[in-house]
Each structure stands twice: as structure tokens, then as C-alpha cells.
Amino acid sequence: MKLVNQDWLIRENGFDRNRIAADGNKFMIGNGYMGCRGTMEEYTRGELAAVTLAGLYDQVDGKWREPVNAPHPLYAVIEFEGQSLSVLDCEPVEHEQALDIRSAVHHRRTVFKADRGAELVVESERFCSAERLNVIAGRLSVTCSADGQLTIRTGIDGEVWDINGPHLEKLEAAERQNSLLVTAVTRELQVPLAVAERISSSMEAEGREAVTMEVRYDQQSGSVFRTISFACRAGKTYTFDRFAAVCTGLDEEEPGAAALRLCREAAGTGYTGLLAEHEACWERKWALADVVIEGDDEAQLALRYSLYQLLIIAPEHSEKLSIPARGLSGQVYKGAVFWDTEMFMLPFFLYTQPETARNLVMYRIHTLDGARRKAAEYGYEGAFYAWESQETGDDACTLFNVNDVFTGRPMRTYFRDKQVHISADAAYGIWEYYKFTGDEGILLQGGAETVWECARFFYSYAYYNPLKQRYEVLDVTGPDEYHERVNNNAFTNAMVKRTLFIALEAMEILHAACPEQYEALVQNSAIKPEHIRDMHDRLYVPEPDSETGLIEQFDRYFTLEDVPLHELKGRVLNKHEYWGGGNGLATTTQILKQADIVLMLHLFKDAYDTVIKKANWAYYEPRTEHGSSLSACIYAMVAADTGSPDWGYPYFMRTATIDLTGESKQYVGDLYIGGTHPAANGGAWMAAVQGFAGIRFDGECATISPSLPEKWQAVQTRLILRGQQIKVRVGRQQVELEADAGNTSEVRVAAYGQSLTLEPGVSAVLRMGQE
Ligand code: BGC
């Protein structure tokens, strides 16, 4: 097996037991339907082997609801002369794991020294087909330096990683139509699930039977393995191609029959054919998504890797799915969707895959009823979106989300009750999509209703302060979760105001296009558009201080203890202790978890001048722990925006490398939170394209204001703006543009104070200093 695409390879040499969990994330593959952790063929539950399914959740014994991991279809372990050649039992002499991010293929090469000196080379590659979403294909090969008896145990392993499982029951393992098959149903909702696998070997092609074939079932765990045993010859390579299909009742009437059929068809196409069609899909994905950074190879690979992570989990195929905070890397964070999607991932999809952006936005529209139920549960009107959202939109977040490391007792946290900005983020996402694409259909198909419901929620949540004659939003938690239940968090208030504006605009559009729908919404509500307008006009949003330019994060934030971050770190008693909550370390101080005011300055960048942005960046950055992976990219962007890209660069690198280094928080209290970080992956794109290249499209004109870090000579990318594609190369002194010949209308672009209109097929250059 050859590793091509050398510039697109993520590789790691040597086997290190301590890296098993981190490498499972780093080397993950996926296709939006499922994610397959970067584990070795011989790994099972203990090494966190998992194939995590998008959108299928289960709950058992009152424990947290979480996504379901399917039985693992590409399990394999090799024995030579009775000796197990698993990296877990036999220290390999060479070991390499690699990921080709250009074609989303996982590779592994391990050399073992067996007892009598024989050297065995085990190689494998696998991919989750981008063309056939239910299919995983793999190729395993073994070469031995001596003759001997080789045994390969392959099949479907039910012993997969589960945090709050087991989630499957009525497990049946069987052999059908030359395939192994495991069927089961989920425990809570009884959704059927099936995994089928079949194998073909190079020996068959040679006309030689794969000698012994024995099939063993373990009905308890839902495993079925076949053992192939034969006399191998020195120096000869034996290859096994593996075809697997995973189906559930969410996508198929009869998952068992469908899995067998898909598996048979995959085997019919063959490994090479499947790989070719998969690679063709990935070529198309990259043609739209790639960002080239000239002059900085390290940043280049990290950014591409971040985009890879987004592309393997993007729900291109369904508008009922969004992207969980840990992608499809396992069950961490309950497989739940947070504000991360709208605020950190949506921009990438808007510019490169608008149809996927639409799916992400539609997910919120489909889960509106869950948000309505949550608002009603708390006694509010409208839609209060789930802080941790699963398939119905009901909140998976518990009132006790963190355990205190000192007492082991659950801590009361207020993520669920008080992070009300989530409804504003959902509304913001819908409006961003609408403005960007001009797709009015989204508003008429539930988008206007959704943002209206979010606005009604805020009207019912807020208070009118008669003395100050203004509306205030009290008792909330902003993005900085270390300070819960605060009043007038500036970010939240600004987002609420934006939501009210969006609702008024969207309702006008609805009024004009579907007056009956509009009337029905208004008539069914005691809160009328004029109430929303009044609140919009008189809502208090904290403003910059006239002398210092600082915006107070929330009422009385500046009265909290102003302790340096390093000093606070010195007070830590347990490295996993939670800094927020009732008596957390940061609670009584000005230390914040993540960008809060600075995020507001980024989102509402036109409302604040550079002096204000700089003053707040300089004040809040030293006080930010960056305890969330959502933080650093925002500081990078605001630094770029204020003309200091080199300040921003380290924050960009920190964001873009988070899943490569594995250096992120792994625990909050005793809660494991490891996994991939799609919000940071999206943040890396935002920082590079919107931040440093300074590209911004408002629905009519793409404005480019470059602010490149010192090392970067240029950023090249392709943009899809209202269905029209342009290639841009943003250099240090000039912006080069090329509109696709296939475009159907012109594209407006502005840079360095000049603007132009690009007809289809036309190229142009805008130069600095020509204004
Ligand atoms: C952050 C939240 C984020 C969540 C999921 C938390 O640590 O503070 O803002 O939504 O992780 O990524």
C-alpha cells in the first residue's frame, strides 16, 4: 500500500500506549453518516474503538442520553504460529499510523518480530465511503519473512466503547449470504440497527481456498468473527479486502436486509473501485473547500487538517442533523449540538458548501418544538433552545452537569437554565444563512417562525426597568461559563437585540409572502410585533466606557478580584477541578473562561472602532483562561481586524492544531471531555479566511481587507457567493480574482477602497494604494 499525497499526510511513528485515546481522535475518518475512530484493527472497548452514528441517540437506566456506537465491522487480529500480533500484546518493532486528509483514508503499518525471529508486516487502510454513506471499506495485508501458520480473526465486534451504555439489545449475530451480520435494536426507542461485513482475499483470486474458515458468534455482545487459517509462504503478501455496511431504522425500513445488500454491492464494486469513487468525491469537496496558505507549511497542514475534520462530519445528506460539539468522535458531550455550530462552523459551510449550511440551519427549524417545550417548562413564551440539543431539540443538559472533584458530589450548574444566548445564536444562524444565500424559502419554511419564537422567548425573559426606562436581561450566563447567573451580560444583550431585529425583518418578509402564516403567528401570541420593536429600541446593551473604552462584561464585573491568571493557577488544588460554579476558583475573580466581550466585538465589528477593539482585547486577553477551544480563534480574528495579525497568529495556530496535538482539556471535574473540536476547526477557517484574508460577504458584495501574518505571502481560496464561484488570491499588496466561466451572474468585490463587478469568466486584480 502506497502513501500518496505526501503534503496532505498526518503521520505518527512508534507505538505509544498513552496516546491511544488521543490518536483515536486525531486519526478519525468519517462521512457525516458515521465517524470511525482512529483505532487499530485489534482494538476493542478498552482502547475506545467506536463507530459513532450521527443522529441516533439512546438512553439507558436514567443515565445521560448519548449517541449510539455501532458494533465495529473492521475488527481484525492476526496470529502467527499461535502468537497474537496485537500491538497491545506484542511490542512492535516499527509502527506507523497515518491519515491521508486529501482522500480521507486511514493507514497503518506495523512490523512485528514473532517468537522464532520471523518478521511480519501488517498493513491496512480504510475509509468511510463518501459516495455510499453506509459503507466502510478496508484492505488488510500481511507479509511474513518465514513460512508458518497464519491465522486471521476478523469480523464484527460488539465490544465497542460506550460511556453510558450498553445501548443495544436483542442482539443477533449470524452468517447470511456470505456475510457476517449483527442486528440489534436500541434500548430506549427500539430503533433497529444492522452491521454486515464480508471479506475477499487475494488467495481466492489465485484459486486457493482461504483454508480453514470457522465462524464464531457471541450473542451476548453482538459479535461475530470468522477465523481464517492457512500456511503462509515466506515473502508473500496476503491481502484481505473488507466491505462493511451499517444501517439503522432511521434510514432504512429493514436495516438487516439493506446492510447485506449494500455490503454485497460494495464487494461487487471491489475495493479499488470503491476507493476510486470515494477519492472522486473528496476531490470535489476539496475543490470547494481548500485554502492555500503561501509561505507557511505548518499553518497550511494544520488548517487543511481542520477543514478535513469538518468535512468528515458534515451532514451533507440530511437536514435533520447538525454537528455535535465533539463531532462524530464518540459519545462525549452526549453527542449534543451546541451554539458551536452556528457561531463557529456555519461560516465555513456558508462560503464553501451552502447546501450543508442550509441543513445545519434546518436542523434548528426541525427542533423548534423541543425549544418550545423547554420555554414552556421554565414558564416562558416562545422558543428556548436546548443548550445541549439532540434529535428532538429537547435539552440533554442536566442541572448537575459536573461532579465536584473534591466531594464526588454533583454540582448544580446553570448551563441549561441560564445560557439563554443559545436562542439568539440559533436565530442569528438562520439570518446569516438567509442574508448570505438570499434563500427566502428558509424563512417561509419555518425560519421566520423560529426567529419569531426566539424573540418572543426573550420578550418573556427580559425585564423592563421603569426607573431606567429600558429593558434588561437579568440572571443569565454568557459565553464565559465561569460567571453564572449574571445581569446584563453585554454579549447576551447584544445578541438578544439582534434577534429582535431579525424577528421583525423576517416577519415582514413572511407578511409579504405568506400573509396567512404571518397572521396565524401574530394572532396566536399575546406578544405582538410592536412589543418586540419596543424592546428592540429600548434594550440596554452595555457600552464602552467613555474614558477607558472598556465594555464591562456584565453588571459589576469590574468589582471582582483582579487576580493575574498565573496566580489563580497557583491556587488550583486538583488539576481537574472546575473553575466555575458556586465556589469555583474563577467565580469571584475577573478571570474568564473564553472570549465573551471580544466575541461580541467580532460579531458586531462595524459597531465598534479600532480603539475600542484594541482596548478590550488588551484588557480581556490576559484575563482569559482559554479554557474552551472556542476562545483562541476569536482573539486571532479581532487581532487581525485591528491590524495586528501577528498578535493573532499564535491564537490561530493554537486553534488549528488542537486536534493534532491533542492538547486540550480532557476533564471537567471527573467528566471526560476529550474528542475532536469542530468549533475550533471552524474557528481556524474563520481566522484564516475571515480574519487574516479579511474576506466578508454581506449578500451583495465581498469585501476583502487583508491583514496577513508576517510569514504568509498569500491566501488562496474559492468562494461560493449566491451560487457564483470565484477564486481569490489575497496577497500582501494585491487581491487577485477570477470568476468562474460557468457563473450565471456577476459578482461584486471590494478591496483597498475600490470595488468592481466580475462578469462570468473574468479575472481582475485590485492593488493596494490605487484607491
Ligand atoms: C464551552 C461552550 C461550548 C461547549 C461545547 C464548553 O466548554 O464553554 O461554549 O459550547 O464547551 O463545545
Summarize the structure in words.
By secondary structure, the protein is of the alpha+beta class. The protein has 3 domains: 9-288, Glycoside hydrolase, family 65, N-terminal domain (Beta-galactosidase, Chain A, domain 5), CATH 2.70.98; 290-692, Glycosyltransferase; 693-771, Maltose phosphorylase, domain 3 (Sandwich), CATH 2.60.420. It is built from 21 helices and 33 strands. The strands form 8 sheets. A 9-stranded antiparallel sheet has the order 1-8-9-10-11-18-15-14-13. α6 runs parallel beside α10 (421-437), α16 crosses α18 (632-641) and α19 (645-656) runs antiparallel to α21 (678-692). The model has no long low-confidence stretch (mean pLDDT 96). The structure holds beta-D-glucopyranose.
Question: How would you briefly describe this protein structure?
Answer:
Residues 304-686 form the Glycoside hydrolase family 65 central catalytic domain. Residues 696-758 form the Glycoside hydrolase family 65 C-terminal domain. With 771 residues, the protein is an alpha+beta fold.
Count the strands? 33
- Which CATH class of the largest domain applies here? Mainly Alpha
Q: Please identify the structural class as seen in this structure.
A: alpha+beta
CATH overall fold name of the largest domain: Glycosyltransferase
Number of domains: 3
CATH architecture of the largest domain: Alpha/alpha barrel
* Radius of gyration over C-alpha positions, nearest whole angstrom: 27 Å
State mean pLDDT (0 to 100 scale): 96
